[in-house]
Amino acid sequence: MENGLILGIESSCDETSAAVVKEGREVLSNVVASQVDWHRKFGGVVPEIASRKHVELINPVLEQALKEAEVSFEDLSAVAVTYGPGLVGGLLVGIAAAKSIAYAQQIPLLPINHIEGHIYSNFIAHKDLEAPLVCLTVSGGHTDLLYFKELGTYQILGRTRDDAAGEAFDKVAKVLELGYPGGPIIDSLVGEGDPTAIDFPRPLLTEDTYDFSFSGLKTAVLNYINNQQQRGEEINKADLAASFQQAVVDVLTARVIKAVKEKKVGKVILAGGVASNSQLKAELEAKLAGLDVGLYYPPPKLCTDNAAMIASVGYYHYQQGIRGDYDLNAEPNLRL
Ligand code: KG4
Ligand code: ZN
């Protein structure tokens, strides 16, 4: 039906989610079934368990999303689904569900890049937000700096040359035996620590590039921990967390400021799981305010993986006439 109602499906990692969104920005439902309890005891997402859980959860989650939105399959204009990046087993579950619905209803199938979904959660949260703007996308798998001259297209300014920022958070937390996922735990520990206690490196900070690198920082943290242990000295976890997080925030902030000045934009948006980091938001907000630049980010519920953001991108693709075929396959390593 030509009413701008898009069903979104997301199953790329450890959340099974379905949502109904009207005209890209109005969320009628956004059901997220998290599997995090099933994976926590393994210290990370176990792909085989994730695939099996997605199979179990996809139908009830879809049913709930339609029920909450008070719509039926017949009301939908199109179905949007994450086809990458992510775990192949999980992606295939979402893609199979989306194809079935698209075929049964004879509506368009819209293949969506998960990372683009994270970005568009901003346009759900801030209804009047328009380009031009700079976007920092920081998640467990990606660290990208983008320039949107207008909505619907973007230019990649820079990306990580090795580890993603979230990956570094998770690895540091794992070595410190803090739990999983590491980002929020480190974030909450930081208040008790001294960010100047340990002088960790700020990779590429002085270079004239938009790129990032986090593997050197991660190695420096691991080396510090090993050295302390060899010397029999205790590790102050809060100081370490605060010093590590300060290094990450310094690098991310510097890149955004450089892009804002060079592209002369008045708005910055954040996307991805690391965008919920409290220090990153606070420091960026303060620095950007000095330049008269607004900072926008989605509320925590939209920062984590969810299908509403997938449906939102889907609407803009739908309007532009972008369509997928029934031979759509999962692309685990898909990039922006
Ligand atoms: O976007 P996301 O939910 O999943 C994908 O990677 O697609 O991002 C998850 C990442 C994890 O690495 C997690 O540790 C990190 O985001 N994260 C945080 C915070 N909340 C989540 N990192 C730093 N501070 C946080 N508050
Ligand atoms: Zn994600």
UniProtKB/TrEMBL annotation:
It is found in: Cytoplasm. GO terms for molecular function: hydrolase activity; iron ion binding; tRNA N(6)-L-threonylcarbamoyladenine synthase activity. Its cofactor is Fe(2+). InterPro entries: ATPase_NBD (IPR043129), Gcp-like_dom (IPR000905), KAE1/TsaD (IPR017861), TsaD (IPR022450). It catalyses: L-threonylcarbamoyladenylate + adenosine(37) in tRNA = N(6)-L-threonylcarbamoyladenosine(37) in tRNA + AMP + H(+). Residues 26-311 form the Gcp-like domain. Signal peptide: none annotated. Fe cation binds at residues 114, 118, 305. It holds the Pfam family TsaD. Its main location: cytoplasm. Its EC number is 2.3.1.234. GO terms for cellular component: cytoplasm. Binds 1 Fe(2+) ion per subunit. Keywords: Acyltransferase, Cytoplasm, Hydrolase, Iron, Metal-binding, Transferase, tRNA processing. One of its GO terms (biological process) is tRNA threonylcarbamoyladenosine modification. It is an enzyme of class 2 (transferase). Substrate binds at residues 137-141, 170, 183, 187, 277. It comes from the Bacteria. Required for the formation of a threonylcarbamoyl group on adenosine at position 37 (t(6)A37) in tRNAs that read codons beginning with adenine. Is involved in the transfer of the threonylcarbamoyl moiety of threonylcarbamoyl-AMP (TC-AMP) to the N6 group of A37, together with TsaE and TsaB. TsaD likely plays a direct catalytic role in this reaction. Belongs to the KAE1 / TsaD family. This is tRNA N6-adenosine threonylcarbamoyltransferase. It comes from Acetohalobium arabaticum (strain ATCC 49924 / DSM 5501 / Z-7288). The gene is tsaD.
